[in-house]
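Narrative of activities, Objective 1.

The group set out to show that a structural description can be obtained from nothing but a protein's sequence at a throughput compatible with the screening campaign. Below is one input-output pair from the validation batch, recorded exactly as produced.
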Amino acid sequence: MAEDAWNVGAGLEGRGVIVTGAAGGIGRAIVRAFATTGARVLAVDVDQSKLDLVLAECPGQGHASLVVDLTDLSCHQALVEHAVAELGGAFALAHAAAVLRRRSDINAVTEEDWDFQLDTNLKATFFLCRTMAAEMGRNDTTNGSRGRIILFSSQGWWTGGFGGSVVYAASKGGIVSMARGLARTYGPKGITVNAVSPGQINTPMLLTDLDPAVYERMTKETPLGYVGEPDDIAGVVVFLASDHARYISGATINVSGGFLMY
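Output recorded for this entry:
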């Protein structure tokens, strides 16, 4: 790459990118960030009105949206086919869709609480990645890569979670192991798989049912001393999807302001 052509989203112009959880705080920032690189984005979530607002913020052309409940595994193939038809291909998946249900008393956690979070955060992730990888395997190899899969963990995978999020943390620990396993499986096909692990990020999910004392304690224990914004995550995701990250796979990128160090 010539020096005068350097940009953080190198290789993404004109590429098809799928972003799930696109109407959430982090997902919305990721959609906008990909759009600025010249990528064509399929924004996926469960509320069309919110998706319309996300796409209205995006520069460029050729973007699309799709309402999907990812826990319905039968819809995954249709989602990928829709992306190919609308975007002209599917090079990258940024899978930000997730749910959190806090229970301050662990004895109050129900089987339904467990299934709701594990089915969305872990089970759906595995099957969507498998479907995406099959499509990516058909892509032409560019710089040795046919595709990028970017998953989302959480600081909770390391700490065990705070504020009644034990089940959520368990699901996110599974994401780290899954990303490593998928990286080994799909590396020979020219597909990289990585995970991003956010710390405290200013989103509705973080603040839902969170004890203010826990929020303040975590902020004080973060060396940078403040809560991050969704754009702090989006830049990392764009980098992982770009040509610059073509030799990174199986990694979990810690974006926590120093709250975690590994």
